[in-house]
Design brief:
The structure holds 2 protein chains of 2 kinds. In chain A, 19% of the residues lie in helices and 35% in strands. By secondary structure, chain A is α+β, with helices and mostly antiparallel strands. In chain A, the strands form 4 sheets. Chain A has a 6-stranded mixed beta sheet with strand order 2-3-1-4-5-6, with helices on both faces. In chain A, a hairpin with a 6-residue loop joins strand 18 and strand 19. Chain A is globular and about 75 Å long. Chain B contains 2 helices and 4 strands. The N and C termini of chain B lie close together (10 Å). In chain B, 41% of the residues are buried. Classes of the chains: A alpha+beta, B alpha+beta. Chain B: Promotes the exchange of GDP for GTP in EF-1-alpha/GDP, thus allowing the regeneration of EF-1-alpha/GTP that could then be used to form the ternary complex EF-1-alpha/GTP/AAtRNA. Chain B: Pfam families: EF1_GNE. Chain B: Belongs to the EF-1-beta/EF-1-delta family.
Amino acid sequence: MSDKPHQNLAIIGHVDHGKSTLVGRLLYETGSVPEHVIEQHREEAEEKGKGGFEFAYVMDNLAEERERGVTIDIAHQEFDTDEYYFTIVDCPGHRDFVKNMITGASQADNAVLVVAADDGVAPQTREHVFLARTLGINELIIGVNKMDLVDYEESKYEEVKSEVQDLLNQVRFNADDAKYIPISAFEGDNIADESENTDWYDGEILLEALNSLPESEPPTDAPLRLPIQDVYTISGIGTVPVGRIETGVLNTGDNVSFQPSDVGGEVKTVEMHHEEVPKAEPGDNVGFNVRGIGKDDIRRGDVCGPADDPPTVAETFQAQVVVMQHPSVITAGYTPVFHAHTAQVACTIESIDQKIDPSSGEVAEENPDFIKSGDAAVVTVRPQKPLSIEPSGEIPELGSFAIRDMGQTIAAGKVLSVTER
Amino acid sequence: MGDVAAKIKVMPNGPEVDLDELQELLEDSLPQGAKIRGFERDDVAFGLVALLPTVIVPDDAGGTEAVEEAFSGVEGVESVSVENVGRL
């Protein structure tokens, strides 16, 4: 399986629109359901005197398997198609997990948005699409699910498709590239085989659409950005910063700069999995050692980059945010904690520049007095301590953040532009 | 809403920390409702080894914050970060 290129695939959509069923169906159709689950079913079916394979049964048992954590790396489910090896990122429903999605290691490259044909665009559909946009999802495949519940009616499919198109336009997702497929995850329509129930549809089925996703390129061409997680003093070596490379390449001998601490030097050695390596790339967890850097010179939240193209330090930045949950309203002067890469910095929302109307995507109000839960807005932010952050248009991996206050994730956003310090 | 599995990366505060002992201390520190479903270890660099417990928390419990805070308070822990999360 591992000789194929890898893709992280997020399954997003409103609760009860069929995300889990779709995951189960994908595993089933690609032969990724553990053999003993199928075997167990076969035995039980024979005992009861009925043959055949019931998908619902597999679904139940998969859930049970995962609860017990027996067979599968429990945070991840995997399957492969002709072209790719997929890891499914099945997003938790609770909003407080959004922080993990932004600062975590396995960012999804592409996503399948599940929308139930009998329900259409629902609140979480909207929220997930915005988050997908913020998290840097490239391509979106829209599965108009539960077609069996609307008698496979083309008009119903078209209705939901146009609702989703409106939504994508609102958040400025490239709506032209998005693919729409009428499916039933439960019945298996248009997942692995063309369905006879949807004669009116002649586009790609889901597995075809997954196969034709563009290959995701690791961001090696971008300048080096390595957020520092921890700084150690190792006897015999000296100061060792540790972190995961987000973009670019770290080579021995590189002249690097740490921002916002604003110190730098030459990289002497790089280690990964306890072995010395001449270079390291995006996704690699490394420890390294830099000539002339002491333990107190750098700290968690610093970003390491090339000395001649150092990480950007923001005096202020403008960002697009969506407010997910806030007990009252957010006004200028509000100072919650921003979580971006390994940094956690209190930042003041200096001004609320525009409120975006969620139903039209247009600017609803210039310089509104406040924003509240469900609102999308453009805001200007002033970090209370130096913060290294990048415009998401230039380095998306360093351009998104979660906003937390009162023990909750209240908003997520991405950086539009940075005014450098 | 079901449960969520989170793979959490715990960095010890030096290469000399006893990881078996640290593993036990992490188990003991868990907030109510959360449980650990196994540990992995990852060699990082210069003798540093990360512990990667997979922690199960209810989806409606509001994220991994309580677990992260509990782990951060354990002696011998340098930092705690969530590697990835997924629904069970």
